[in-house]
Amino acid sequence: MRNQTYILGKLVEIAIIFFVIMTALFFLFRLSPGDPISKVVDPMLTPEDMRYLIEQMGLDKPMWEQYVIYLKNFFIGNFGVSFHYGEPVFKIIRERLGWTILLFTSSTILAAFAGVFLGKIAAWNKGSRLDSVMSISALVCYTLFIPWFALLLLWVLGFKLGLFPLGGILSPELWVGNASWFEKVLDIIHHMILPLLTLFIINLGAYLLLMRSSMLSVLREDYIITARAKGLSEKMIRNKHAAKNAALPVVTSVGLSLAFSINGGALTEQIFTWPGIGRELIFAVSNNDYPLAQACFLLIALVVLVANLIVDILYAYLDPRITY
Prior knowledge:
By secondary structure, the protein is mostly helical. 76% of the residues lie in helices and 0% in strands. The protein is built from 15 helices and no strands.
C-alpha cells in the first residue's frame, strides 16, 4: 500500500514538473534571439505572401493566445507542424526515434554489462597490476572528448583503412537493388559499428569505475564477512552477494543514461550523420523550428522523468532494505 501511494505521488509530481517544463520551453523559444520566418521564407516573396505564411504558422497572434492554442493541441496529441519540413512533428519524430533508440540503447546496455563484469574483477583484485591497468584504462576512456574520439575513429577506421562507411545508416545502391532483408540488416550493422564503438568505449569507462567503487564499498560490509565465516566460496561471495548489491548504483546510472540517450547524443549523431533525434534537435534549434524543437525537448523530459520513477522502483526490488 505504501509503495502504491509513493508511485501515485511520484506520478503527480511528474505531471507537475512536466507541465512546468512544457511552459518554460514554449516561452524560452519565443523569447530567444532569432526569427523562424527568416529561416524558411524565400526572400523573393511579396509582403502579402509573407504575411499569409506568418498567419499560417500562427505567429501573428499574441504570445498568450499562441500558448493557449499550444496547450489545447498538446492535450489532443497534436504537436504542430514543422516550420521547415512542413510535415507533422509527430511524423518526423517517429521516423527518427527508432534509429536513436537502436544506436544508443545498444551501446549503453553493452557498455553496462561489460563495465559491471570488468569492474567486479578490478575491485576483487584491488591493488594488483590488473586493477591498475583496468582502472587507468577506464579513466582514460571516461575522460575522452567525444567529438575528437569520434573523428579519430572515423578518420582511421573509415577514411584511412576503409573498413567502415563514413556516415549514414545504409548503402543506397544496396537498398535500391534486390538485396535480401538479411543483407540489409548487415548493411545497417556495418554503418552502425563506428558510432556504436565510440559510445561503447566512453560509456564502458564510466560503468567500470562506478562498479569498482561500489564493489569496494560493499566488500567492507558485515554480511560479506559473515559469508566468508560460513565457508562460502570466494566466487559465490563475489558474484552472488557482493556484485548484486554493488550493481545498484550502476542500475541507476544505466536507467538515466538510457533516458538521456533519447536526445541522441547530438554531437555523435551529427559527426556520423546518423538520422536520429539528436541530429534533428540541433537542426530544429539552429533554425528556430519551434514545434519540432519543443517536441524533441518534451520527449527527452518525459523519458527522463519516467526513467527516474522506474529506477526508484527497481531499487526497491533489487534491495529489500529499501521501502517507500
